[in-house]
Amino acid sequence: MLRRAASIALVSIGLVSILAALPSLAHAGGLEYVAPGTRAFGRGGAFMARADDPMALRYNPAALAHLGGYQLSAETHLAFYDACVRRSGGYDDSGVSDVADADSVFGFPDRTDPNNFASMQFPEVCRNGAPGPSPQVLASLHLAEGLGIAFGILAPAGVGSGMWGNGDGTITSNGITLPSPVRYQIVQQNVLLFHPSIGIGYSPIPEVSFGATFMWGIAMIDFTTMTSAGSGPQDPARDVRARLELSDWFVPAAVFSVHVTPIDALDIVAMGRISDAIEGEGSLTVTTGAFGTSMAGGFSPFTTPLQNARLRAGQPWEFGLSVRYADRIRPRRRNPERSGRLLGRIDDPMSSENWDLELDVVYVMSSQVTDYVMRPPAGQSVGICEGARDCVRDGTAGLMVSLPNTIPIAKGWSDQLSIRLGGDVNVIPGTFALRGGVHFETSGMNANYQGPDFMPGMRLGLHLGATLRIERFDVSIAYGHIFQFDHTVAVGEGRLRHTASTGGRGPMDEHTCRDEAGNVIEGYDESRPVAQRGCYPPGFGSVTNEGTYTAGYNVLSLHVRYHFE
Questions:
Q1: Quick check: 559 and 475 in contact, CB under 8 A?
Q2: Residue 149 belongs to a domain with what CATH number?
Q3: pLDDT (average), residues 391-399
Q4: pTM of the prediction?
């Protein structure tokens, strides 16, 4: 009876933990670092009021009203992302050597043996993965005086892939293969997000412009994590590996902006970006007994593929205000395309200004990302193969366990403030420009829910860039280093691992939601997210995320643009 209860818990937990570290696909902070677009990145993200290339589609569509001619641009970042986690404590801190009754590929836990994993401290785990590109392909067209459009593919400035450890839930430390200390949060992730977009800018009078961009988002996620059964001990002999593959082919979003030029040298812009939640659907593949050895009293690996799993994940909104001052060589033209033909050269800020300086302040409403809600496929079960049965050979599970109806995954992000200061100097107006900038972001991390998959920590970025114009062809480059302040989740402040999700199983401690009479509140109420209530439905167990999180970026960027006559 006890073994069957433990087996049921084993599967239930695997489904809960698959989303515990799922990337939010956020568009500021979190998965994304500052400033998509090469020229914007070179200015530290201070590009909202400048917005003088087709990336206005993302930053300030109102600027399209005065963007000259027909322009075609292609650009990409290449982000080298370094991130590590040193989890507090050691493998036996949850008491696995006291209660374990099954062997794993790492051996039976024995804290008296210095060569056994149970006697070791957690090693540091760092992300492995290729540099992250973020390509943009855009075109803009000036239709008439005070009217312009742009369209193309936008992508967030983020690193969408990574592997923590060896990709199978293990890590090699000093030549020894060990269970990864962060396997219950993340093993491997691949995220693709892009937005086919179209925008329009209109200026009824020279001093005021309005704009809007409509974005058709497409998201694809491939994510693997693990978990362990029991009410506390993190025993690899009972680990479950879960892989989530889902997509959402329509994640609508929009950008709105108002651009005011009270005097010729001054630009003021207000911008807002809103996004619908991700409503993904796909498959969930669960492997129970992932590190099992098929020995008596233990588990053998057994894989169950499931279809029609669903996920709902809210997205943050953002609102920004920008002020820009430019030292102008000549007055700005309402129709830069016409004035460019008269002047015999491209008429834009690179040729009509000596220098400019811009300050952007962006408020990111990350606090609306509270709980993700996972709904496993209804009416389906997952198999468990006990070591005494030859399940791998005959393909039949020893136990079949029903799935819970709803699984809440608390995120609990905090709102963030991003301050960006940057500008250009036209060393040779119309031919060569240098730019630079700095940005600072407050932290959106929450100790109770923090994981290594994305780290919206406090950041400071230093940026440089340049543009060379050869006739009607521009080549821009940029480099930036983004420092992220270390974030430590102290002992006693960590997130509790969800150890069961059906029937109220799991420990009932001070974190479990109770009513005024002290009775445990069963189930999940979507109108009262875990992140806002400060308590959990029944079944949250041992801590998994206490430790120190470090991260940083080195980003190279290249942009090419052609101005058609």
A1: yes
A2: 2.40.160.60
A3: 70
A4: 0.85
